[in-house]
Amino acid sequence: MTTKESSMMKKAGRVIALLEKEYPDTRIALEFKTPLELLVALILAAQCTDERVNRVTRSLFKKYRTAGDYAGADITTLEQEVRPTGFFRNKVKSIKACGKDIAEKHRGKVPDNLEDLLSLHGVGRKTANIVLGNAFGVPAIGVDTHVGRLARRIGLARSKDPNKVEAELTAIVPEDKMVKFCHLLQDHGRKVCAARTPLCYQCVINKYCDFPDKTERPKK
């Protein structure tokens, strides 16, 4: 291990410790009970808020309980049911195709490994890693908008490519903290480190952050 790698690991540890105190109840915002529910929720969450997805899935998950249910769903009906999440036609195509893959190739069970998850229609690395971490307890970094933005601002990652950010973070974040680390960055990104106007003067990890354009406390 190089001196730089050691330094980055220590920095990540300090950031995690401070954010854990700030967000002691951190968890994934999407509501689900099964790996299939989480997978469907993640497909619906593309360019949509988690809150809106949760409103839609509360009734959706009562009606569609298996991968086969989604595969055999009437397209027009399903489109109307998920319409509030936006881009509903493409999302329904992905959900039905993914449901068919799971039903036919995986005996109706969402696979618990990265390779098989990535083989499913509509599933990329971010979605696959979030499913692995939150549904199966596998150490994984799911790089969504918040995770990527904050990792770069703090200085824990440099790349704008989500896959490369994943690799950078995987190298410095302890395995037993990986899933929680993502939740912490998501909470902090929503509440403090906003994309346009981060509240740097309220940030508990300010001193560890490399963001050059830190906002100052507003004058009264």
Structure commentary:
- With 220 residues, the chain is mainly α.
- It folds into two domains: 3-26 and 141-208, Orthogonal Bundle (Endonuclease Iii, domain 2); 35-109, Endonuclease III, domain 1 (Orthogonal Bundle), CATH 1.10.340.
- Helix content is 56%, strand content 0%.
- It has helices at 3-22, 35-44, 50-63, 67-71, 75-82, 88-105, 114-118, 125-135, 145-154, 162-170, 178-191.
- Helix 2 packs antiparallel against helix 8 and helix 9 packs across helix 11 (178-191).
- The radius of gyration is 19 Å and the shape is globular.
- The N and C termini lie far apart (48 Å).
- 35% of the residues are buried.
Structure summary:
The protein is mostly helical and 220 residues long.
